[in-house]
Design goal:
The structure holds two protein chains of two kinds. Chain A is mainly β. Helices cover about 5% and strands about 60% of the residues of chain A. Chain A is globular, with a radius of gyration of 25 Å. Chain B is mostly beta strands. Helix content of chain B is about 5%, strand content about 45%. In chain B, a hairpin with a 3-residue loop joins strand 23 and strand 24. The chains are: A mainly beta, B mainly beta.
Chain lengths: ~650, ~375
């Protein structure tokens, strides 16, 4: 299969390069590195600004599944290439968002206001100077805050007001100031309130019900300071605070009229400060240091619907610190060697755990990158060691994982590449210390990935721009951590018994046209994922992974007016790996429409205003991404954004 | 959990004449998977299986095996009540049969359904908070309830509700110990096993309730974390425990007391422990109690065994190690039921608790007669006598 893929991509490369024959041969190659060896999918600032949040923006990537529990307060996580969400590292400005408790990163919490780029690296991200944690993640999602664009002034900012159905209102603002000649300070604020009460039909029945207790109130504040690009050294420090109070509507299930809904609540307080500094110390050597400190508090209140006095409070206080140092050595123009060492400490205190586990993690990475003509390649290895201290006990876990990336540029517009990577995820505190499960000697969960890809473009022909990419991959997850009842059925424990084999393919193509007045374009994506549970006979596709899924966008821009139509299609899925009809979750197709008008120039003291209307789920499709969690029907958000 | 009474009702309901005509039923149209060959109709026309479903997954279902043609029909309730929104509901915890009606306690939904046993159509639904287990004395159906103390309310006492079999309305409630589970009736008194639930509650009592006055008349201290109750033909009350355990220094869970079996004599309120029996699930059979448990749970090993404890005499126990039998490949022994007419044993396999489970029929020598794919977590089995 893989060799077939290689042949296909080689064939594609030859035929497409012939088509693009007009390129000058001198442009094709020179023995120098050109950016990342890995080939990420990227969403840039303008598209990010048109998305509601990060989860919304990354729907433009193929090969991933976003789990969405519905409503403004619903959890949103990402699962790349069926490895499981704990294998996807989420990095903000290069530093990983850690949640040692459950490895779950809620993408609904990050504001898109100040983001300049979001990229997804399948397999290995290969920047030459990066931390060991960046080498360790199975796949990685990068959220980048770029330096502000001041134009000719010394201030840039915006203010946004949003309001819409589902009783939703949001205000946000950010401003950036030049600090001296080379630095900037940016600051952002946001406040969201949503009732998120909506009608739905329970799956398979023609009865209309109302989703309640899905409300959320949240606020965030962030400050980023850094230096402007183009300097020899690079530095950036940031602080982020987020707080929210929300209802947890829970899954929909049949309830007696007397106790119709969940009244559980959740409160979050998240805080982090982080920084990174990079500098060449000589012509051949560069160094980078990074650090982060964080504290995440969560209070979950289980309120009995029957006896209001019977509330159970679950407090989790998760804190930690992180340091990383990396060095890059360039012995020759065709060779780069790098090494990094990371240390991370996490501590969890909870009134529901019988211990307060402390975790010391150290990661070391070594990497070598080469370039030969049109080829560049990178080899790396990560060694990780984790020591847990709990009560009187101690547990040590370790893993060593290699990776290799190869890229070939047959011509300027064409990249063909492949990678092989082994990665792991350590057991989380929830896996190990949760009261009802207990622990055995859990090993890290392993993921092995092999992928190939070919990307073409952007190929420009007059006003037309064309781009296409095809990717194929084979993944194997072993030692998957699964909760199983013990021989005494009243006690559960976690074991490394799961095995999943994934065969997938992603296709992407886009075309756009731009002239003086009009620009228009579209994009189509398709993903195939055959993810089989091979831990036991009689199992099929793993839960929640569709065999087929796809998405597409169309846009049309004319004199400041812009219309965006996007569509999402997800094939049928199963909630259990035995794939029986009783576990089937139907396919769904939704469309979103956005209409916007940009008023340029100084209006009411601003530097421009964008007025937009977003209609989500245009056809009012009744669907569930997660069983028991109905998604909202047709809803609309109106927004006004003023640039300063 | 009034298995004794259920069995008595079943026995009295079944005739000796196996050649009786089958009564036509609306559910004759339902076709399932033929799993049983040459299964004589015998004393019973159907074997009902209640699938608990996953916690808050709303996928509890009612299946049955039709003895006449050996067909196993999944989700019969859903098929016979298509307009009943969200079907049976969430977490079917217990089921009993009385007078041609099935009573099903839906723990997550806070409902007790009354269903026609002849065609699985819904007759009535009674709202009861957190219903757990059922028992009947022929006049009322009694339901044990955590009464809100599911995850919190460590010290909140549970309740037993009384439902009229004529009006399908709750006509009384009585406070018992924390998180009551199994119920049994003997000598005009109701016995409720208080489990202490998911909290670190020190609970080791059986509550005793006088049925005429429907008032608590006392407690019997047995052992920690009680679970199931069954009453034998002599009126003795059998009660099992979840056992107890703790985390050792290496954060491994170790059992400190076994999932044990005890028998209470209602005459003096004293109990005896049956030594060497480990109970994951149990049922009352004809002249004996059947239990399945892990014989090596205290040692940290696994050896699933079937225990047959005589309900008369000195409660002698016969142990069969299941690893050498046709039941060896069962992953999670979850429910057990004995056919009083021919001695067949039905065992449910809950598997990994998320995928489809299975129901197996074994003869007295644990030779497999048939197996059927069930819903999620098949638990309670009830036999419907032929009319």
């Amino acid at each position: 299969m893989l060799s077939g893929g290689v042949i296909i991509s080689a064939f594609l490369s030859v035929s497409l390069c012939n088509a693009a024959d007009t390129l000058k041969s001198s442009e094709i190659s020179s023995a120098r590195f050109k950016g990342n060896i890995s080939m990420p999918q990227t969403v840039l600032k303008e598209d990010i600004a048109r998305s509601g949040d990060v989860a919304d923006a990354i729907r433009r990537f193929s090969g991933l599944q976003i789990r969405d529990y519905g409503g403004a307060g619903g959890l949103r996580t990402v699962n790349v290439r069926s490895l499981g969400s704990a294998h996807t590292g989420v990095f903000i400005d290069g530093i990983q968002v850690m949640n040692a408790q459950n490895m779950q990163v809620d993408l609904g919490r990050f504001s898109t206001d100040m983001l300049s780029e979001i990229s997804l690296h399948n397999g290995q991200k290969t920047d030459f100077l990066q931390s060991a944690s960046e080498y360790a993640a199975g796949s990685s999602l990068y959220l980048e805050h770029g330096a502000p664009d001041f134009g000719s002034g010394s201030f840039a900012g915006s203010a946004t007001l949003k309001g819409g159905t589902l009783a939703t209102g949001e205000v946000s603002a950010h401003g950036s100031f030049k600090a001296g000649k080379t630095a900037y300070i940016s600051s952002g604020l946001g406040f969201l309130r949503s009732g998120s009460r909506y009608r739905f039909k329970p799956r398979g029945y023609d009865t209309t019900m109302v989703r309640r207790n899905g409300d959320i109130t949240s606020g965030r504040m962030e400050i980023i300071a850094g230096n402007m690009p183009g300097r020899i050294s690079e530095w950036k420090v940031s602080a982020y605070a987020y707080g929210s109070e929300r209802g947890l509507p829970g899954p929909v299930y049949k309830r007696a009229d007397e106790w119709p809904m969940s009244s559980d609540r959740q409160m979050d307080r998240n805080l982090y400060i982080q920084g990174r500094w990079k500098r060449p110390v000589s012509e051949r050597v560069s160094v980078m240091v990074s650090g982060k400190a964080w504290r995440d508090r969560l209070r979950y209140t289980d309120i009995s619907e029957i006896a209001a006095t019977d509330t159970a409070v679950y407090d989790y206080d998760n804190s930690g610190i992180y340091f990383s140092a990396a060095v890059l050595f360039k012995p020759a123009s065709w060779l780069r060697l790098s090494a990094a060492a990371d240390y991370r400490y996490s501590h969890l205190v909870s009134n529901r755990l019988q211990t307060s586990p402390r975790r010391h993690e150290s990661l070391e990475s070594f990497s070598a990158a080469f370039v030969f003509g049109n080829f560049d390649a990178s080899l790396s290895a990560v060694a990780a060691r984790m020591r847990d201290i709990f009560g009187n006990g101690e547990a040590v876990r370790s893993a060593v994982t290699p990776s290799a990336v190869l890229r070939f540029r047959p011509c300027r517009k064409m990249v063909v590449g492949g990678f092989a990577k082994e990665s792991f995820r350590m057991p989380t505190f929830n896996d190990i210390y949760y009261v009802t499960t207990g622990v055995k000697a859990l090993r890290p969960e392993r993921a092995r990935q092999v992928g190939i890809s070919a990307a073409y473009g952007p190929f420009t022909d007059g006003p037309w721009d064309t781009e296409a990419a095809v990717e194929g991959y084979y993944n194997l997850v072993t030692d998957k951590i699964i909760a199983v009842p013990t021989a005494n059925q009243f006690r559960w424990t976690m074991y490394n018994i799961g095995r999943v084999r994934i065969l997938g393919a992603d296709l992407r193509a886009s075309v756009s046209y731009s002239s003086e007045d009009i620009s228009s374009g579209g994009c189509l994506r398709y993903s195939f994922q055959k993810a089989r549970d091979i831990s036991a006979p009689g199992k099929g596709q793993i839960p929640y992974i569709p065999l087929h899924s796809g998405s597409g966008e169309l846009f049309f821009e004319f004199r400041g007016w812009r219309a965006d139509l996007s569509a999402q299609l997800t094939g049928e899925r199963f909630t259990a790996s035995s794939n029986l009809p009783q576990f089937r979750l139907g396919s769904w197709f939704t469309m979103d429409l956005r209409l916007a008008k940009e008023l340029k120039g100084s209006i009411l003291g601003t530097d421009g205003i964008v007025i937009a209307m977003d209609i989500r789920n245009l056809t009012g499709k009744n669907y569930e991404i997660v069983r028991g969690y109905p998604m909202p029907g047709c809803n609309a958000v109106f927004s006004v954004k003023a640039e300063f | 959990m009034a298995s004794g009474l259920i069995m008595a009702a079943l026995l009295s309901g079944c005739g000796k004449d196996n050649r009786k005509e089958e009564v036509p039923s609306a559910d004759d149209e339902l076709t399932g998977v033929k799993v049983a060959e040459n299964e004589p109709s015998g004393a019973f026309s159907k074997l009902f299986v209640l699938n608990e479903g996953g916690y808050r997954s709303n996928n509890s279902t009612l299946d049955f095996l039709r003895f006449r043609d050996g067909n196993y029909i999944q989700d019969a309730f859903g098929q016979m009540n298509p307009s009943e929104t969200m079907g049976l509901g969430d977490t079917g915890n217990d089921m009993l049969l009385h007078d041609g009606k099935l009573w099903i306690a839906m723990n997550g939904s806070g409902m007790v359904h009354v269903i026609s046993a002849s065609d699985e159509t819904l007759i009535a639904t009674v709202s009861v908070p957190d219903p757990r287990c059922l028992a009947t004395d022929g006049r009322y159906v009694y339901v044990s309830s955590y009464a809100g103390a599911v995850l919190g309310g460590a010290e909140t006492p549970g309740k037993v509700f009384r439902i009229s079999m004529d009006t399908y309305k709750v006509t009384g409630e009585v406070t018992v110990g924390c998180q009551p589970e199994g119920l049994g009736i003997s000598g005009g008194r109701l016995y409720a096993a208080n489990s202490g639930g998911f909290n670190a509650v020190k609970e080791n009592t059986v509550s005793v309730i006088d049925l005429d006055s429907f008032k608590s008349v006392g407690f019997i201290n047995v052992v920690d974390n009680l679970k199931s109750i069954a009453v034998d033909e002599n009126g003795k009350v059998w009660v099992s425990s979840y056992g107890n355990g703790e985390y050792d220094a290496g954060w491994n869970y170790v059992m400190t007391s076994p999932a044990s079996l005890h028998v209470i004599d209602p005459a003096d309120g004293r109990f005896r422990t049956i030594p060497g029996v480990h109970v994951s699930c149990m049922c009352m059979g004809k002249g004996h109690l059947l239990a399945i448990g892990n014989d090596l749970e205290m040692e940290g090993g696994t050896s699933m065994c079937l225990y047959e404890v005589e309900t008369g005499g000195d409660y002698s126990c016969t142990k069969t190690v299941l690893s050498g039998t046709d039941a060896a490949d069962i992953v999670t022994f979850y429910g057990i039921c004995e056919n009083p007419a021919n001695g067949d044993i039905y065992i449910t396999d809950a598997g990994d608790y998320t995928d489809a489970g299975a129901v197996h029929c074994f003869d007295r020598n644990l030779k497999r007669k048939w197996s059927a794919t069930a819903g999620v977590i098949p638990s309670k089995i009830v036999l419907l006598p032929r009319r």
